[in-house]
Design brief:
Distance between the termini: 53 Å
CATH superfamily: Response regulator
Structural class: alpha/beta
CATH class: Alpha Beta
Order of helices and strands: EHEHEHEHEHH
Helix content: 25-40%
Oligomer: single chain
Strand order of the largest sheet: 2-1-3-4-5
């Protein structure tokens, strides 16, 4: 089962992403700030990283610079999730990361990126039942 590192200081986002990952059979470890994230990245090899850019202690840009020095192959399996302004991102080219998703992000886009990074199987789409189908009377032959 793939394991990812989720780096975000926003607990509701961590809970949402953890729930999404559980549907994909992906294990999530998380860090709430940049210093803890770098420590975890140096200790263990992850299948992918989901990284917020605006973090306490050490921001995502600094984390990307560090990762480039000790695990450059991990950059291609890094998904950036951020609410950073256009001005903040103006000179940012992605740093070799897979994708940048703006908060609020589309869950389908996140799932696609996770599948691409980890090689996990995408779950089937949820079955949609129309109101008509759900309440249609059952007709039997007399």
């Amino acid at each position: 089962m793939p394991t990812i590192l989720l780096v975000d200081d926003d607990e509701p986002i961590r809970l949402l992403i953890t729930a999404i990952c559980s549907r994909l059979n992906v294990t999530v470890e998380w860090a709430g700030d940049g210093e803890i994230a770098l420590s975890m990245l140096r200790r263990r090899r992850y299948d992918a990283v989901l990284l917020d850019l605006m973090l306490p202690k050490q921001n995502g840009f600094e984390i990307l610079r560090e990762v480039r020095s000790f695990a450059p192959d991990l950059l291609a399996r890094t998904i950036i999730i951020t609410a950073a302004s256009d001005a903040t991102l103006r000179d940012f080219d992605g740093g070799g990361t897979l994708v940048l998703l703006r908060k609020p992000f589309d869950i389908a886009d996140l799932m696609d990126a996770l599948v691409a990074c980890t090689g996990c199987d995408a779950p089937p789409p949820p079955r949609r039942i129309s109101a008509y189908t759900a309440h249609a009377p059952v007709v039997t032959n007399p």
